[in-house]
Amino acid sequence: MPVDDVLLDAEMHMEKAIDHLQHELRGIRTGRASRALVENIHVDYYGTPTPIKNIANISVPEATQLLIKPFSPGDLKAIEKGINDSKIGLTPHSDGRQVRLMLPPLSQERRLQLAGQCKTHAEAAKIAIRNARRDANKIIETEQKGGVVTEDESEGGKEQVQELTKTYETKVDELIEKKKHDIMQV
Fold first, then answer.
1. Where are the alpha helices (DSSP H) in 49-186?
2. What CA–CA distances, in Å, run from 120 to 25, 68, 115, 139, 173?
3. Over 70: is that where the pLDDT of 186 sits?
4. For the residues 16-23, what does the mean pLDDT come to?
5. C-alpha to C-alpha distances, 83 to 64, 86, 95, 101, 139, nearest whole angstrom
6. What is the DSSP secondary structure assignment for residue 50, as one 8-state letter?
7. Which pTM was predicted?
8. Using CA atoms, how far apart are residues 72 and 163, in angstroms rounded to an integer?
9. Residue 111 and residue 184: Cα distance in Å, rounded?
């Protein structure tokens, strides 16, 4: 496998780690309401775990409120149960046709907990990026031993893999700092 292919493969894996991190960070609450807080909560829909976004319309009428309107009124109880069973810390209020979630202001202690969650997600993303680096370096070494690439190409490839790793770790740090800033902002 040529060094360029190894680099492309490593970059693809690192990009997936960044995408996953962004997805995880969308579900962490800041001071404002966001559809991402509840859209992937699974509810029991006729015996099948189904995300709320597939069975209801989720809107943000105010900065501290979420409104969930089920497509079928019979699903209201399942949505309430799913929200109560999830660990988002919000209590659903139902009027028989829709569910309202009021987001209370975050305490400083809760803000610090959420910032800690961000760090956990960041570390997982960095581990995935480093694993991609390790795998790419192993492939380059194997190709060098097999005589497919020269020693100079191997060394150059490893340097490029390390540069990619630094670039993607910097992206992780930037995403986390932005999210932590959003969380800590009152």
1. 52-55, 76-85, 108-145, 151-184
2. 11, 29, 9, 29, 12
3. no
4. 92
5. 17, 5, 15, 9, 45
6. E
7. 0.73
8. 52
9. 6
Collect all residues with Cβ–Cβ distance below 8 Å to 70 and sequence separation of at least 6.
Answer: 55, 56, 76, 79, 98, 99
Largest CA distance in the chain: 71
Residue with tokens 């360029």: 4
The answer to whether 99 touches 146, Cβ cutoff 8 Å, is: no
Fill in the amino acid letter for 18.
Answer: I
Parallel/antiparallel/unpaired status of strands 65-70 and 56-62: antiparallel
Is the distance from CB of 100 to CB of 65 less than 8 angstroms?
yes
User: Helix or strand or coil: residue 49?
Assistant: strand
SS3 content of the chain, % helix, strand, coil (to 5): 60, 15, 25
Tokens 């992937």 -> residue:
40
For 26-69, how does the pLDDT look when each residue is reduced to its tens digit (9 = 90+)? 877 776 777 878 877 888 888 888 888 888 898 888 888 889 99
